[in-house]
Write a structure and sequence with these properties.
Number of strands: 67
Strand content: 25-35%
Amino acid sequence: MAVYFDHRVEAPDSNGTASLLAWHSNQPLLAVGSVNPAAGGSVDVYLKQGEHVGLCHVQRSFSPSLLRWHPTRALLAVGWDTGETLILTHPHGEVTLLPPDTHASCITMLEWSFSGTRLVTGDQAGVMVMWKVDARGKLHGNHVMKQHYNKPLTHCIFKPMPPTEDMAMLARAAVSGDEDALDKFNWKKSNKGVGAFSPGSQDGLTIYASTADGCVYSVDEQGRSVCLLTVEGRVQNLFYSERRSVLAVVTDSLLLSQFSLGPEGGAQELSRVKLSRRGGPSADIVWTEGGLLITASGEQHVRLWDLEGDDNCVLSLDENLGFEKGELLNCVSYCTAKDVLAAGTNRGRVALWQMTTVTNQKGETKTQWELQTPTELEGNITQLQWGSSLHLLAVSSSGSVLILSEHVMCSHYSQQVAAVQVTPTQLSLSYFSTDTQLTLRTDTHIRAVQVGKDTVTVWDGRCVTVYETSGPALRHTGSFQCDSVALAVYEENIYTVEPNRVQVRTPQGTVKQLLVFSEAEGSPVLLSVGGSYLAVGTDTTHVRVFDLSRREAKPLCNAKNMAELIPELGALRSVKCNANGNQLSMLVTQINGRPDHRVYFYDVEMDRVSHFDFFTGRPLSGLPSPDDTQRTPGKEVELAGRYPTSQFWDETEPRLFICESALVNSEFHHDKQSQTMNKVDILVVTFFVTQEHGLLLQDTQPKPPTLQSLLALDTPYYYYTCKLLFQRGGVFLPHPGEKDTDKELDHSAPLAVPVSHHMVVRRPLRDFVGLESCDKQTRDAMLNFSFYLTIGDMDEAFKAIKLIKSEAVWENMAQMCVKSRRLDVAHVCLGNMGNARAARALREAKKEPELEARTAILATQLGMLEEAEQLLRSCGRFDLLNKFYQAAGKWQQAVETAETHDRIHLRTTYYNYAQHLEATADKTLALAYYERSDTHRFEVPRMLMEDIVSLEIYINKMKDKSLFKWWGHYLESQSDMESALRYYDYAQDYLSQVRVHCYLRNIQKASEIANSTGNRAASYHVARQYESQEMISQSVHFYTRAQAYNNAIRLCKENNMDEQLMNLALLSNPEDMMDTACYYEEKGVHMDRAVMLYHKAGHVSKALELAFATEQFGALQLIAEDLNENSDPVLLARCSDFFIKHAQYQKAVELLVAAKKYPEALQLCLDQNLTITEDIAESMTVSRGSTHLLEAERKELLEQIADCCMRQGNYHLATKKYTQAGKKTKAMRALLKSGDTEKIVFFAGVSRQKDIYVLAANYLQSLDWRKDPEIMKNIIGFYTKGRALDLLAGFYEACAQVEIDDYQNYEKALGALTEACKCLSKAKSRSEGDTEERLTELTQRTTLIRRFIQARRLYEEDPSGAVQECESLLEEPDLDPAVRVGDVFGFLIEHHCQQGSLQKAWARVEELKRLYPTVNMSVYVSPHSLEILQSAGVRLNLAETTHTHRDTDGTYTHSDGEDEDEVEEDENLNN
């Protein structure tokens, strides 16, 4: 907890009442302007503790009007009432006067530019001047700019400009001494003390200046002045928002106007609002960098306006914190660095509000202001101002000035003695060994305290004073002057520091020993005693440990530079060592000045560093805890997003370490906001630290809200300091507004703290609850137990406590099992506790699949409700969490859980909550939740039964049919039939209406209702009434409308109403149909109706029997349509005979098939020439493995079906049945008859039989395979697969002939014949016969073709040789059909034509015509050659087209295309 030390400024006696305050933005310099009516005015400068700077005193006979510090240098600009303006330099007190003829009236405007190179002054007469000032406070020549407005100036600000210059060029120019470059380059160093706006990039030197008549001018350095805007009233303050380009203006009447400034300089009003009813020059106005306007105008609250978010709020005082009723707020000041708002009151108090930012469940951030304990001063506070880099607060109260500096209240614990500072000069001492309390008051402000068993050492920053206990009092034993930054005490030695060494002193200040550090090791700045060891931290981040157990301190290790082991290390914040001195813990600051979110541990003996990262919630080095795998993500989330604030080792146990961790406002925290919404602000974390197991997380618990901070750890207790409240007249605790359930702080209201009350509160460790007064042996056993349980060694943990018989120990161990999830150990603990109920609950919890859910049940039985809630939430068992909330009476949480996560139990939760509310007599809210649970239709009438009026009002309001019906029943029970009928009508309860009308003997009205509504129940009731009155016709009618057909049938039979009986029976169920059919049969009339009813009722055999008996052939037709394979075979056969007899063969076949008489059905199809459809064929196909037919019989049946399909021309179906019968060859032949090429190819491919391949190939040869390469490919493939090589050779021969006849392509023909030869060669090896003769013939043909091809190829090289070869070919007797004679002649004719030997060519033509008189020469001779011959007089017959064939006798015959087609067709038929 922090308090503010007040230092009154050491003002000269001649000074009067302080009227002006001004802090320097960076340096701890306070300027105070005073007014003495007798001596005039003065300006003085003071240091941080109020020390007066004698040289900086300026006295005048008139009063100062304005004070402004230079933004970076110690230069103070002072304006006076007479217009005089000067610059005062600190610390020499040199004064620089501005030219005296500049201003002749009171200075009302005084402002430095952002970089401090320009100073603007303005006076009451409207004169505004800009000056150029150097770094020493000297003016550069005459003024830069001067304007005359002839009206009082009130305020001005500089407009920041965005950076447009090259920063490197500006830097070089600034170093060379260019003032303008320096002015632009140092734009970031703004005067933050003003707090009016954030700086721009340079002094573009646009100034906004306001006048008393409400005008605001824009002025630049060249003196150009433009009136931007005008408002009503005198302008008191200006603010410019750089981000929004908005200028805000506040007048004396507290009227706020916002204007948008365009790039061309125009202003457009955005809004205008009145800030307060009270205004005037006395109103204090403060702007923050975030666009927040804060005003105090002598009211009981402070007003805040957020210009960025367009929101506002008010802050009021709280009497519970020590403020008085009716206390007024006069002035305000805001500290941006600390986010603290200070306000001064008319009763001498300084109110402080701490600004915090919270995030709700939707992820929205909201700013909150928390009122702190006030600082008590005297008089009426009229001015406040934060300032300097030390964040000091200057207060002007009743003419005097005080400087408030924040100080964290010191405290210390050692050897069962605790000291806590309660006021700046008072200590509260608690002696826990004797349970006594002492108070120590000093004459100076206490800045540090160290306690021992019998001593108390205090330090005020300059002097160390030692006290010793003497009975119930303290006596002074020694003091000495010491300017030390750190202090530590061990037994009779006091340890202080000075540069590069630690001094070991006696209580009287005598230096006994010096612990020296080298220059590289740095100067000690941190001291801490742990056990008998001293830990020292230096300003160069070195650490060192000294052993104090001997007469002189001995170093335990060499100084270690932590910067070598810790990255980004800036400085050490805290260094502590354990009781053995072998472990050091450190809190550090990073290079950027931020506190590091890790706590570091240095093992002195092993020379290694480990750490725990509170930002992620896990250690990054050292051995992890064995239960890390069992640690839930919720535990890591709970630890994550924090940073350590304080640390302590146990006083005697060297393994035990504890630290406080606070939440950080970081990106990590915001990203995890949905998980960290319920995080506590301060979490106390306990670790075990050992060399063997590293860093082990032992426990976490939130700091109690009524306690201030952790003070120490001394097993078995944590020691906390209490929160205090400072008011006039005393110190109070606990903190008002907070409740504490602990016995030591059980106060219903703040009471003055008596002298005997402890300012330190002890809380037992988790493992020592119930064992607070145990002896050392038990304490050591429990510590070992906790340690072994933390590392997961349950056997050693049991050994550690096996001799402890305390029930509290076992209960504590059971609670630890909740933390460690060890339910097996929990069973043993519960047995030793004798808690049968908890043991039973834990045994029944085994059915829950989640470990966390079972653990939560254990935690509930042990009273650990918060842990149970967290466990259920972490494992997602919101159903159990809902039940938990209900059992705990937390109904709001239960309802929220059901609405968001457990909607399956939402109505049940609403119902249970409604019952709870009803039990607590909150019927209004119970009614609402009964409605939500949808049980209000019966629960609300029950609940309100004793309040009939309220119940009737509720029913009429709800307009619910069920409630109307219930209310009608109630009214009927009260004999109010008319009202009951009305509510039955509202409820549309027609049965009740009919019932009441019948009761009132108004059966006609009842009949009308039943007829109009068609309600079955109403109709039934009316039918019963008519039956009782023997009105049979009406009764039958209403029974029929009620669909009570059995009653209507009964009445019809009893009253011989046969005509209606049939229709009713058909509408009724099968039983009634059977009964009616029997009725007709017994009477012997309407037998057709009886047959129909038997049929409809499902008794087909009875219907058929009766139909045969009465020869009702039409009925037989209808009945037969419903027969199927599940019917009686005898019945089916009988029906089929009936249909055969009446020539209905199709139906007879279907019945025979249904009766499984397949041969008879097939024979009937053949005899009567019935087409076998696919459906009939499938129905006659018996599945494989059927018991009805043997496999051979089944195949025979399928073959017969296929034969029948073949006769009928249904080849596809025949193929299918042949295939099912296993007759694939027959199937293929049937498929060939269908001519379906695609299916033939497919069937051949899947059959994989040689004969089928051959059949398929033969069929494909009958197609036009010449034009379809795919068919040719399949023919070759099928012949190859079918091993029909001779047939394949024949196909190749045919291919070769096609190539010759159609394309004259002898090369391809030669290839085909070559393949044919290969096939015949293979066929020859398998079978002799005529294959040899065919092979010889093919070989000869191949030779002839090859000779002709060679002759054509030889022609280009040796034409004569080619011609001789062709002539020799013509002499071959078997040339054709191997080589067409016409092709050879054509070759020769072409040759002679090319050679010009037309006679020879003509001779060849004549010879060819002699051999083939009808030959078409254009087939063999090119058109060009023919034209040459024609031109020579040759006449050719080109009209006929002939084909040449060689007869068996060696002669050639010619036939036209028609004859050839016929031959080919005959050949195809032969194939």
